Amino acid sequence: MTTPPDIVFEDEVFDVALHPTESVIASGLITGELFIHTYTAEEVAVRGVVHEHEGAVRALAFSDDGSYLFSASSDCSLMCTNPATGEVVYRHTNAHKHGINALLVIEGTGLVATGDDEGVIKIWNLQDQTCFAEYHAHEDYIADMVAIPHKKMIFAAGGDGRLSVYNWAKKKHKVSDQLEDELLSIAIMKGTQKVAAGTQSGAIVLYSWGKWGDYTDRLLGHPQSVDAMVKVDENTLVTGSSDGILRVTTILPNKIKGVLGEHHAYPVERIHASKHDPLLASCSHDKRVKFWAIEAVESVVESGGDLGAGFVERAEQLADDDDDDDDDDDQEDEEEGDEEEVQVQTGDDGGDAAAPEQDVTTPPQQQRGGFFDAL
């Protein structure tokens, strides 16, 4: 299958969302802009841009039928937009006391969950636009969330190294033991038998159903943090790592089957699957949104787990780059001695690192146009 071309932006993309019934993708930028594109195998085109968030758009999700697009920002706001017209349906300016980092539409329930930088999770009723539940199980940011709607349960991965499980019907929650490792991404696998969580160290830890205190198994092999993951089927995950590589991974047997692609060594922020097209979409610090065919994932799985020369070569290159950086740092330290001056480059999001400056061109099919220009 031919995939759509990359979408190239001038600024970093923090999240993407794929429309459930149309070939439409939304992208949230560090600038606070919310882009909506249509796509085909040949081109992508800007449907419009919404300029309503004052902080970075960190999380996005479409409603079940695609009629609404929800966005959450570092400015603490939660917003609902009509993706067809660009109209802001409603906005909670101070939905949280701290920046929102995670957003989840709970399918078939009319509920949305949000998680912030201080570990607070709120559940919102879309019918009356109010928060009806709130819990404080974490001591650090909420990195990712997933739900089992028919069980009325939300699972959250926290930067404090804890997994939390919340039942909004019973208003009860359980929290795992704390790992000396940040949990960054999460997926429910094996027909709810396993909950997989990606970590800062690169391990994927597996929790067994009902045994939330500690993980029961883990998968090793990612050389750097597992920042993002998406479930392809009950046995297969695609992971995104801070080394920029997307890998195809199976659960029980726990194995990295191979490489799907990469974002040129820039950390992968998020990966999402389309319900409308057989595609995945990922975004990264390289300021690009890339599309991946599900059949390519299946091909990697069927290959039998041979990572191939390309994977080995890429891994060796990353290792060499790290060694070179270390050597350069040591040399600079020796030359500068006690007069060393450290400069830290950050993005507009108060601590989100910005990608190095690079020449970025926008293809003609991505030029702005349409009804959103007036917004």
Descriptive key words:
10% helix, disordered C terminus, four-stranded antiparallel β-sheet, 375 residues, globular, mainly beta
Describe this protein's structure:
With 375 residues, this protein is mainly beta. The chain contains two helices and 28 strands. It has helices at residues 294-302, 308-336; strands at residues 7-8, 13-18, 24-29, 33-39, 44-51, 57-62, 69-73, 78-81, 88-92, 100-106, 111-116, 121-125, 130-135, 142-148, 153-158, 163-167, 172-175, 183-189, 194-199, 204-208, 217-219, 226-233, 236-241, 245-250, 255-262, 268-273, 279-284, 288-293. The chain is globular and about 45 Å long. The chain starts with 6 loop residues before the first strand and ends in a 39-residue tail after the last helix. The relative contact order is 0.13.
